Amino acid sequence: MESDAAAAKRLQEVVFAKWRDVYRPIAGPDPDGAKRFDLHGLVAVMDQAVVGVVKYYIEQTRLHLMGLAVDPNQRGRGIARNLIERLESIARERGLKELSLYTVEETGNVAIFSKLGFCVLTREPAPGLESQTGGPVMEAYMVKVLS
Length: 147
Hints:
Order of helices and strands: HEEEEHEHEEE
Shape: globular
Strand content: 35-45%
Mean pLDDT: 89
Radius of gyration: 15 Å
Largest sheet: 6 strands, mixed
Low-confidence stretches: none
Number of strands: 8
Strand order of the largest sheet: 2-3-4-5-8-6
């Protein structure tokens, strides 16, 4: 059986491949700077298959998530919401005040994360990314304050 880590990586590759019609990474080392953090991950498993994945790191008073991906055949079943809720629990256990993330606006994910309780704090051209035509894509920095 495929390990959870290998299955999670494969799932992220499948899910993020569809966005290559919208944006692409600009060549260069670690464009999002995440390698400087101690990355952790969560997987959602259903019927012994990985159906959701998210990576995260902790910085100061926040838990920053990245790479949230849900199997396209399993969407609409609350998998992303469950992963976010688990991240909220982890953050609260550590006394953190908020969750944060960056998302490319052109993907439509701002609306999805808004439904999950996140608010846009800033918008700016995404560093390390460009549109398929070579122009900028916009990145939203979103936060969910924990109560």
